Protein 1
Amino acid sequence: MTFPATASVLRYSAFASRPGGGNPAGVVLDASPLDEQQMLAVAAEVGYSETVFVTSRDEQRRRFTLRYFSPLAEVAFCGHATVAASVALAERIGPGDLVYDTLAGEIRVETVADGPGLVRATLTSVPTRSRPAQAAEVDAALSALRWGKADLDPALPAHVAFGGNEHLVLAAATRARLADLDYDFEALTAVMKIHGWTTVHLVWRESDGRFHARDPFPVGGVIEDPATGAAAAAFGGYLRTLGLVAAADTIAIRQGEDMGRPSDLIIEVDSHDPRVRVTGHAVPIPG
């Protein structure tokens, strides 16, 4: 397939301040000539967990339409690709506020210069929600993960949380359990497709203000995400639903460490607001 010249793909690593960390994302800043099949083909060729496509743009109003594709399918929202696109745009039109129309709803992002050659982006999610996972959902996921119920932290119950997409949240009892991830790819894919989960958000609580996370993403054709902004937003809603945040709390999430791609996500959760703010840097990946 031949793609229009405007389909040139930029590559950024999100939620890191150096290319060797974070989650790589493809960014196409002018995707208006592309149809869905072409965007999917571009994403498959890039091979990252997501590539984001700017399908319409109004630079004067700083408003854009974004679509997100994994190598296998379109997804409604992707946090790390949104951060990557925001930094790419800020580098070209200047830092400031951005507004995105996505399949998940309107997403607002603040971008600021944060030192020489570095831009920080903060996205505000759509309203989050979280519900207790059903026993059958948990059992099926644990079987595919090759985990047992004793591997879970009873103080952090399993939930299905939403922050633009739905994610199953499972809390590991120990850091060692989180580090030892060897799941059945096909089995977990099947479970996630049945329930409509975008990732399984595996977490371990180091302290009240710091968590470690891993996100299997087999439904996107990717074993694991090094940083997952949408899941971080959903996790903020999970903590809010459980009453584990105060009027306004800031939580640090460390992800990708066990993959050799350390990523840092900061979430701001308000007990009175269902929206969650997710902050991180993004940097170009040298070609």
Note: The two ends are 22 Å apart (CA to CA).
Protein 2
Amino acid sequence: MVTPARVVIGLCLVAPFVAMLWVGSYAKTDPVLIGIPFFYWYQMLWVIISTALTMVAYKLWQRDQRDRATRSEDGGASK
């Protein structure tokens, strides 16, 4: 079953792959940040962003599973 939460989970997990596979968007040296070329600090920034997005996806998944368990318990009790 596709729910809005599951769509957000999917987007959170796919975004880092798209960002890293689209090399043309970050294959350059400018702008430099603290002497580090863009190519390198952009990738390191995505390590942090990916961690945050994975954490969000995991929390949403936990909530979705908890809600499904609650709905199935409620549905079973009413029969």
Note: The mean pLDDT is 91.
